[in-house]
Structure formats: structure tokens, C-alpha cells
Amino acid sequence: MSTQTASLVKTLNLKNFTHGTSEQRKEFAAEFEAGLKETGFIILEGHGVNTHLIEKNYELWEKFFTLDTEIKQKYEGVEGGARGYTGFGKEHAKNRSVGDLKEFFHVGQELPVGHPLSSDYAANVWPEEVAELRQYALNFYRELERVARNMLEALAIQMDLRPRFFADMIQDGNSILRAIHYPPLDDSMDKGGIRAGEHEDINLITLLVESTASGLELLTHEGEWVPVKAEKGQIIVDAGDMLSRITNEVIPATTHRVVNPEGENTSRYSMPFFVHPYPNSLLETIPSCITEDNPEKYPPITAGDFLYERLVEIGLIKK
Ligand SMILES: O=C(O)CCC(=O)C(=O)O
Ligand SMILES: [Fe+2]
């Protein structure tokens, strides 16, 4: 981590919330909210996600991404990229036309047959060439959901909401595990291309376990790009558009990007977990976030409709 990042982005330990005294829990919650407001990012330690599980996921996803393109394309095309593989250059940031220099694979919520929400979600697709992926990716998904629940409970307490306010929204929610491969750059790639153009995530919060290489940057309120990196055992947490919307922008969505490598030109892998409410959950402004100086900015919308609008904007759904 650069010294600049170290001083700018707060590092918090989740154990202080899950196992701490009431003082430590309060302090954790306050620091989390302050971090989201000040820089949009916090770095989380003590999250309890097993290192082996993270390493195994990287190993298996790398196996998938090194398969021939024709094989990977068999797993493409499920509902605007909601599940399975999305090929190189397809997604672009909201106001850009050049596609990002990445390919990725989405794993979504998997509910038992007969669950009332199971028909709301497309079925996951699993590459038969990497048989172990299903088990390891789903275990990882569950672990990240647990961390997300804890973080959102802390935020709800800090905002004087009932503790499960956000946690109920993400219960059986539409969260997405995205495994990303940014290939080494070569001359055939679009000259204006960047690994991931400047953007905000669509969801409530995003959890990013350590990536395999640097490149992630956040935009400060002062308009300066600053590198952020999670080391082994750390998770970066940031705020997305849905959280910004329901907090009436009291918590802004974090603007970030992934820049091209300057030194060694190798593949980069990362695995963001986008924490989403269930599709019928209403994104409605939290009353305490409406004040005379900050009147209500957005009408209510369901999480499903909001997501659809944004997927059209970033090129994953064609209207
Ligand atoms: O690869 C990363 O570190 C971040 C990726 C990202 O911001 C995204 O996919 O939304
Ligand atoms: Fe992002």
C-alpha cells in the first residue's frame, strides 16, 4: 500500500464489530460510515474469509480464463451477462464507448428449488471443464454475503436504523460474484482502452478481496486519483449507486477505475462481490437523510428496475 493510500483510507477490523464491546462496535460503525463519506473506501481486516478459499477461487478462475475462447463462449449470453461469461471488450463505463480491457464471469444467488424468490433469478452456469468451480465459488459467495451482512448492520446502527434494515434488503438478494481477468496488454488492443474505465458500482456496497496485481484507483473528492490495494487478508469495501440513492447522496457512490500496468505487463485477476438487494426491494430515500438543505433527490424505484436501467447504460443489456 502506498503511504498516500495508507494515510487516506481507513483500515478497520471486523472482529471489533462481531466480537467487540459495545464501545468497539460503535466505533467500528462510526469509522465505517466516516470512511465511506470521506474517501468511499475502507480496508477491512479480521473478516474471517478463509485464505485457502480465496486462493482456490483464483486458481480455478485462472484455469477457466486460460481455456480457448470458443470454450469460454459456450458459457456466454445469459440475460445480459447476469450469469456466466462476458467476453473481452463488451462492458464499458457509463459514459464511454470504448470497452474495458477485461473478460469476466458472473456467479449469482442460488436458492433451493421451491424458494419463493428462486424464479426471480437466472440459473447459474458452470463450466464443465473446471468441475470444482461450483463448490468453491458458491462457498466464497456465502462467505462474502456474511461479511456484507455484518458491514451493513454496522452502517444501519450508525444511521439509527433498525440493525437489519439493509441486511433484510440483501437477504436472498441479487448479489453477484464477478471473477475478472484483465489480460496482458498487446498492440491489437484499442489504444484508448483502459482495464476498467472510471465508474461507480450499481449496487449497495462492493467487497473486493485482494487482487493479484495493483491498478485499482479511487477518485478523491478533491479530484485526485489515488491507488488502493488490499493486501492478503484484507477486503476493500466501497459504496455503490444504490446506497447513494437511498441515502439521498449523504453517502456518495465511490468513483474508481483500474489503470493499465506500467511495469510488468501480466494478467491481473480480481473478484469483486457486488452486494445487491432482492429485485422487488424498494429503493426509497431514508427519511433521516432528507433535510431542508438536502431535499429528496430521487423517487422510489425497485432494485430490479434500477439495475435494468444501469445495465443498459453500461452495454450489458441491449434495449
Ligand atoms: O478489478 C478491480 O479491482 C475492480 C473492478 C471493478 O471496479 C468492477 O468490476 O466494478
Ligand atoms: Fe467497480
What is the H/E order? HEHHEHHEEHHEEEEEEHEEEEEH
Percent strand equals 15-25%
Q: In whole angstroms, how far apart are the ends?
A: 41 Å
Helix proportion range: 25-40%
CATH architecture: Sandwich
- List low-pLDDT spans: none
The number of helical segments is: 9
Mean pLDDT: 93
Number of beta strands: 15
Which homologous superfamily in CATH is the superfamily?
B-lactam Antibiotic, Isopenicillin N Synthase, Chain
List cofactors, ions and other ligands: 2-oxoglutaric acid, fe (ii) ion
CATH topology, what is it called? Jelly Rolls
Query: In total, how many domains does the architecture comprise?
Result: 1
Rg, Å, rounded: 19 Å
The CATH class is identified as Mainly Beta
Largest sheet: number of strands, sense, barrel closure? 9 strands, mixed
Shape assignment: globular
Secondary structure class reads alpha+beta
Organism: Fictibacillus arsenicus
Keywords: Iron, Metal-binding, Oxidoreductase
InterPro entries: DIOX_N, IPNS-like_FE2OG_OXY, IPNS-like_sf, Iron_ascorbate_oxido_reductase, Oxoglu/Fe-dep_dioxygenase_dom
Pfam families: 2OG-FeII_Oxy, DIOX_N
